[in-house]
Amino acid sequence: MAKISKDDFVNGFVPHHNHGSVDYTGVTDGHVHQCLDVTSPPIRHEQGHVHYTEGYVVFEDGHTHQYKAYSGPAIPVGNGMHVHYYDFYTTESDGHRHHVRGVDQPAPGNR
Ligand SMILES: [Fe+2]
Ligand SMILES: [Fe+2]
């Protein structure tokens, strides 16, 4: 099996990969939480693949929030890499929830 380094062009689907992301939640109740995430491996989908993720946002203002979400389908970004959109709400805690929306870090494979 060919070794693939992160700078090599990868044509097609890589069955074992995940995506990291470093983001903030939206502002609610005067604060944000950092959201540091690593997704599940790819899940086959009619439009290619998606990823599942669950976890906790970073403790801030005396509380944390949970989340469970699926990403959007793979979006090719050139150089044999792809990204996914994510858009979800955390669970309610301390009487509020947060919106989390963005694009994850590119991973190998162009679909
Ligand atoms: Fe992916
Ligand atoms: Fe909060």
Short description:
This is YmaF family protein. The protein is mainly beta. 0% of the residues lie in helices and 42% in strands.
Describe the protein in words.
The protein is mostly beta strands and 111 residues long. The protein has one domain (20-108). 0% of the residues lie in helices and 42% in strands. The radius of gyration is 16 Å and the shape is elongated. The two termini are 20 Å apart. Bound molecules: fe (ii) ion (2 copies).
Keywords:
three-stranded antiparallel sheet, YmaF, 111 residues, elongated, single chain, binds fe (ii) ion, mainly beta, 0% helix, 10 strands, YmaF family protein
Beta percentage is 35-45%
Number of DSSP helical runs: 0
Average pLDDT taken over every residue:
94
The description of the largest β-sheet is:
3 strands, antiparallel
Helix content: under 10%
Evaluate the radius of gyration. 16 Å
- Describe the global form: elongated
Low-confidence stretches: none
Distance between the termini: 20 Å
Series of H and E elements: EEEEEEEEEE
SS class: mainly beta
